[in-house]
Amino acid sequence: MSRTIMAFDYGTKSIGSAIGQDITGTATPLKAFKAKDGIPHWDDIGALLEEWKPDLVVVGLPTDLHGKDLKTITPRAKKFAQRIHGRFGVQVELHDERLSTTEARADLFAMGGYKALSKGNVDCQSAVVILESWFESQWGE
């Protein structure tokens, strides 16, 4: 049975989103949400969840290259994940997002050059990278 999985790339100024199906293991960018000091407009997040009705939400967990928490952003991403679960009652998992932004920039540049590298595009493509990486980790077990 196929599940719909949504991913978020959390940031203090912008939060990217993507949607995918675990049967195909592919993800599609959705939209980026502006955030004010890490806090999104929750009604916008709720509307997206209502529209897609995901079975699971994956939130990228920012860490350093060694997988250690980053002092300021890691706890905030965890809090964002907890709030999604608490506010909307959807199952949430955290997933290591090391290098997702770098990979997203490379993917976007390959598709559309510098013009494709807008902040919103990068954040949404980062969410795609996070989700596809999560799919790969599920199959690797």
TrEMBL record:
CDD domains: YqgF (cd16964)
Domain of life: Bacteria
EC identifiers of the protein: 3.1.-.-
Main location: cytoplasm
Compartment(s): Cytoplasm
GO biological process, one term: rRNA 5'-end processing
InterPro entries, sorted: RNaseH-like_sf, YqgF, YqgF/RNaseH-like_dom, YqgF/RNaseH-like_dom_sf
Residue ranges of every copy of the YqgF/RNase H-like domain listed in the record: 3-104
The entry's keywords: ATP-binding, Cytoplasm, Helicase, Hydrolase, Nuclease, Nucleotide-binding, Ribosome biogenesis
Example GO molecular function: hydrolase activity, acting on ester bonds
Any one GO CC term of the record: cytosol
Chain's role: Could be a nuclease involved in processing of the 5'-end of pre-16S rRNA.
Similarity remark: Belongs to the YqgF HJR family.
Listed name of the protein: Putative pre-16S rRNA nuclease
